[in-house]
Amino acid sequence: MNKKRWIALGIAVVLFAFSIGFRFISTLFSSDLEAMFDIPQQQYQEEVIEEGTGNKIAVLELDGVIQDISTSSLLNSGGYNHERFLKKMEHVGDDPTVDGIILRVNTPGGGVVESAEIHDKIVEVQEEHNKPVYVSMGNTAASGGYYISAPADKIVAHPATLTGSIGVIMQSFNFAELAENIGVDFNTIKSGEFKDIMSQSREMTDEEHDILQTMVDDMYADFVQVIVDGRDMPESEVRNLGDGRVYTGKQAADNGLVDDLGSLQDTATMMREDFEWPNAQVVEYKSAFEWNSFLGGTVQSMFGSEEANLMAIQELLQQSDGPRAMYLYSK
């Protein structure tokens, strides 16, 4: 072969190698590495926060958008994992060495179903295992974050915590006018009048709006009832507070949505005093080392926590083409 053919062959080899490498990286980002390499899973690790003897208080962290999607995705594995959190709650509930539980909540909320599942798990731990559950709110504990906090025996917020945002939201985009301006036609074949309800390709009808509003109202009523039951507040008061606005921790304490103000350490002190466990040990329950979480956390650290949350919210919104109701506060 002449020189030009050798050069062409070399370029082809480089492009082929690049293609293989790109496909490998793409697969890696969307794969469950533990399952791929059959890596055995350990249970949980205990990190001692405050030394003590006798009673034990377990701290569980709920950080990120509450969602049950793409839990095996590398980009998502460094954040909130719904299945893992529910199992962790179940574990500390069953653990006879754990006397009390503190949930460190830092979330803008998320899915309606996922929030309800966490709420039910908290109530289950309280009723079946007779263990107190306190909530320590971080920067944000809004919408679904407040929904899951409502049944807690005590809610403690930082004065600057953003909480509240009591309500349900359902959103979609409408590209009909833009599509008309650029000459794009949508062809839809459907089996029933409302099969493409909340379609992005046309305006919503009044009847469709009423159908969806009824759904949102029903879910909002459930949210209100959760607070009525959990906080022992009159329904009229909850509805008055629950107009979708956010409150600071101090405002929430003033209006009865939280019980006290303080840090995670303050919350542990309150539990010790309330149950007369002066020497209780405080430990944080963490999932054992996992490749997905390790690599996912590394990837997310490149973008920052705010960008990671935005990606999670975008994924939550785009989970399906149909409307999705959410307990979510987003700025």
TrEMBL record:
The entry's keywords: Hydrolase, Protease, Serine protease
Indicate the segments forming the Peptidase S49 domain, all copies.
128-274
**Which Pfam families does this UniProt record tie to the protein?**
Peptidase_S49
Entry protein name: Protease-4
Regarding protein family, the annotation reads:
Belongs to the peptidase S49 family.
Q: What is the lineage of its organism?
A: Bacteria, Bacillati, Bacillota, Bacilli, Bacillales
Q: Does the keyword Endoplasmic reticulum apply?
A: no
| One of the protein's GO biological processes | proteolysis
Q: Which species is the source of this protein?
A: Lentibacillus halodurans
GO MF terms held by the record: serine-type peptidase activity
- Asked if the Swiss-Prot or TrEMBL record annotates the protein with the keyword Hydrolase, the reply is yes
Sorted alphabetically, which InterPro entries does this protein's record hold? ClpP/crotonase-like_dom_sf, Pept_S49_SppA, Peptidase_S49, S49_SppA_C
